[in-house]
Amino acid sequence: QLVACTKVVAPTFRHPACQEQLIEAAKLVAKSVEGIVQSSQEVCRDDNLVQDLGAAATAVTKALNDLLLHIKKAAQPTNANEQHEEAVDTIINVTDRLFSSVGDAQEMVKQAKQLAQATSTLVGAIWGEANMAKEHSDSDTERRLVAAAKQLAEATSKLVEAAKGCASNPNDSNQQQMLRSAAEELRTAANSAASNAVKKRVMAKLESSASQAAAAATQLISASNQAYKTNSNPTSNQQMATAAEGLDQQIPDLVQALRAVQRSQDSATAQLALINASQDFIQPASRLIGACNAAAPTVSDEASALNLHNAAKSLSNAIAELRSTASKAQEACTSLEIDSAMDHLRDLEQDLRDIQDAASSGRLTRLPGETAETSSSQLGTTSKTVGSSMAQLLTAAAQGNEDYVGIAARDTVNALKILVSSVRGVASTTEDRQVRQAIIDQAREVISQSHHLLEEAKAAMDDPANPENQARLTQVARSVSNALNNCVNCLPGQRDIDQAIRTITQTSQNLSSPRFPPSDRPYQDVQNDMNNASANLNQAASDIVTSSRTTTQALAESSTRYSQNYEEFVHTGLTMAGLSKDLETQNQIVGGLKSVSMVSSKLLVAAKSVSADPNAPNSRNLLAQAARAVTESINHLFSICTQSAPGQKECDNALRQIQMISS
């Protein structure tokens, strides 16, 4: 009666009435057992038999108690996460069956119906959670759950429509493909809607599968070593030994990833490492399985051959399970790349705090081979790499492409690791405490803004339809770019070049409304000063190009000298213009000074670029071109000054008149 009742009520096991029937049937069995024991004790005089009967009766009673506990557990309210896990697990299994049924329209429609039912259960559970969040005034959670439920409901509607089309046209391959696509979309929506519950479940399965695969691999390696001694085929023996060695090197990585996950269950970095280690484990394990199966027929010792065969079969089953669970884990944990990247950023933030503490206490020392030049150069180069990676991250996030977002996030973190290492190098090789403190502070700001950018990218992935995504991403990316520029500007030498640029900019602004310095000196003396100032400025431009091939500090010093020579050049030029009483001549000289100012700014900007990244392609060529432009502008202004000398116009007019008369 108990068995019959169980078979009947099993599909509706959680219903109270069904549970009551099962409990009553179990009580009848218990009562019958008690009756048997009591009757036997009355008629049997063999104590051993009575004792054996009592032990058997105890076993039955224990089994009945276990059944009753299971029923009571089922009567308790189901946890929301458990509902999510069960529903999504059903969805994943059913979609797998649907994908493998392509070509059989009837079977595909059947699986689609089961898929719709499982989705309906999941949607109901999500709506229940949303209502609970509403009761607790958690508007953010409620909004997120409602959006997930709606997305899942829309995907279900598409699936139903596709299933109807496939049922009405069973021989149409396009209809079958549409149903498959709808199922894929529904599966993605389900993973997104119950991501946390699914992650925990698939990661737990992956841990179990990885552990079994590692154990099976160890057994097969041991069996292959034993079979090696009695294998009569040298070729297969060598292949088996090589494959065993390759797999043996892979086991520690998998075990280490397993231990990391067990230590930190919620660590995205550890979870991602386990997924990657599991996938890396599959190929060498498959290679050893193939080599062992090939070698087994030529192993003369029957026990070794049998052991090899069984171990290979065991590992084959474990690898099949590992491949399946790793694939499901990768599919369910699509945001792990971003989560892992944010974990790494938190580690980098701690590294910078440690660097700052060491610098403050005087314990920060340079590493072997670390110089100010190499660290500064590496920092400038890496800042461009970070900028490029973040541009890719923005593009991928705007397109809603999770795979590319993950790749860009990983590339960004790798570049930031090098950036932090470069910051440490700069801080340890400079004697200027102000520079040291400033560059560490700005590096921390870069990490902080980068973390904010990854958070926004993840939010955009979770809610791709939000129209504010692009604006928020762009704003945060601008903050990261500013932080990077500020960090590079803290490099030794960069501040000197920035000061030189500011000096030239301020002087150029004064040329907008020029004031001519009064002078009672002869024009010839002022012109000689102009000649000297022009020569000095031209030489300073050449020195900038020359020093760019030496050190960044030399480049900074030559840039400072250039700004000083430029101030002298402009002062002399304005004095010369003031000596001329012709307004047109004054305007021509001021215009020439403005031209020199513009090319001087370009020269120092090019010098700053070379200082930040000496190995940047074409940067030195641009610097040389800027220096040539300075020389050309100086020569042009010098010609204007020569033509504006007192009596020069009169001489020119007299020459023209003589030429007219002679002609």
Characterise this structure.
The chain is an all-alpha fold and 663 residues long. The chain folds into 5 domains: 2-75; 80-193, Up-down Bundle (Four Helix Bundle (Hemerythrin (Met), subunit A)); 198-331, Up-down Bundle (Four Helix Bundle (Hemerythrin (Met), subunit A)), CATH 1.20.120; 336-489, A middle domain of Talin 1; 494-655, Up-down Bundle (A middle domain of Talin 1). It is built from 22 helices and no strands. The chain has helices at 2-9, 16-43, 47-75, 80-100, 105-135, 139-168, 173-193, 195-228, 234-263, 268-295, 302-332, 336-360, 372-399, 402-429, 433-462, 469-489, 494-510, 523-547, 552-579, 583-612, 619-643, 648-662. Helix 5 (105-135) runs antiparallel to helix 6. The radius of gyration is 40 Å and the shape is elongated. It starts with a helix and ends with a helix. The model has no long low-confidence stretch (mean pLDDT 82). Keywords: Coiled coil, Cytoplasm. Residues 205-329 form the Talin R4 domain.
SSE map:
Blueprint: H1 2-9, H2 16-43, H3 47-75, H4 80-100, H5 105-135, H6 139-168, H7 173-193, H8 195-228, H9 234-263, H10 268-295, H11 302-332, H12 336-360, H13 372-399, H14 402-429, H15 433-462, H16 469-489, H17 494-510, H18 523-547, H19 552-579, H20 583-612, H21 619-643, H22 648-662
